[in-house]
Amino acid sequence: MYRNRNQTIFIILSALIVVPMGFLFKYYNGPANQWFNDYGADVLYEIFWCLFAFGFFRSRTALIQIPIWVFVITCIIEFLQLWHPPLLEEIRATFIGKLLLGTTFVWWDFPHYALGCVLGWLWLRQLHKIGYAKKSQS
Predict the structure, then answer these.
(1) Cβ-based neighbours of 15, under 8 Å, separated by 6 or more
(2) From CA 133, how far away is CA 20, in angstroms rounded?
(3) Quick one: how far is CA 113 from the chain centroid?
(4) How far apart are CA 62 and CA 53, in angstroms?
(5) How many CB atoms lie within 10 A of CB 98?
(6) What is the pLDDT of residues 98-128, one digit of tens each?
(7) Which residues are CB-neighbours of 85 under 8 A, at least 6 positions away?
(8) Do 66 and 127 meet the contact criterion of CB atoms below 8 Å apart?
(9) How far apart are alpha carbons 52 and 32 in whole angstroms?
(10) Exposed, middle or buried by CB within 10 Å (0-12, 13-18, 19+), for 18?
(11) From CA 113, how far away is CA 96, in angstroms rounded?
């Protein structure tokens, strides 16, 4: 139980770092703002979802599966941006809907999703090691 508590704390702290950075990137107005707004935020979006899923699934197998599934689901969501039924348009019109589903399909998002998932995987590996190290010390 001690291991899970420490791991949970590090997952929450990680999310508390990634989420504000994601918003900062999304609304940043300085140099290179277009990259930060469009693609840097995508990288952090992927990392967030990896952390979120790891909060529920912490096995060694999940370390590999989570980034893969996050990438696949995010790619599906990106392709859904080509589809504009009334229900999806209503959801996208809200702030949360826009953040979660996006509004415009862009091919260049895919490499950034992949980068975010690789970085998310590396982050999860570190969180897993922290939990494992605490368990072996108990």
Answers:
(1) 48, 51, 52
(2) 28
(3) 9
(4) 9
(5) 12
(6) 988 999 999 999 999 999 999 999 999 999 9
(7) none
(8) no
(9) 28
(10) buried
(11) 19
Low-confidence ranges of the chain (pLDDT < 50): 1-2
Q: What's the rounded Cα separation, in Å, for the pair 53 and 28?
A: 27
pTM score: 0.89
pLDDT for residue 113: 98
Strands (E), the chain: none
Contact assessment for residue 7 and residue 127, using Cβ atoms and an 8 Å cutoff: yes
Q: Contact at 8 Å (CB) between 64 and 121?
A: yes
Residue 34, C-beta contacts closer than 8 angstroms, at least 6 positions apart: none
- Residues 39, 109: contact at Cβ < 8 Å? yes
Report yes or no: 14 and 119 within 8 Å, Cβ to Cβ. Answer: no
Nearest to 43 by CA among 134, 116, 137: 116
Q: Which of 137, 71, 80 is nearest to 110 (CA)?
A: 71
> What single-letter amino acid sits at 124?
L
DSSP 31: T
- The CA distance from 27 to 8, in Å, is 29
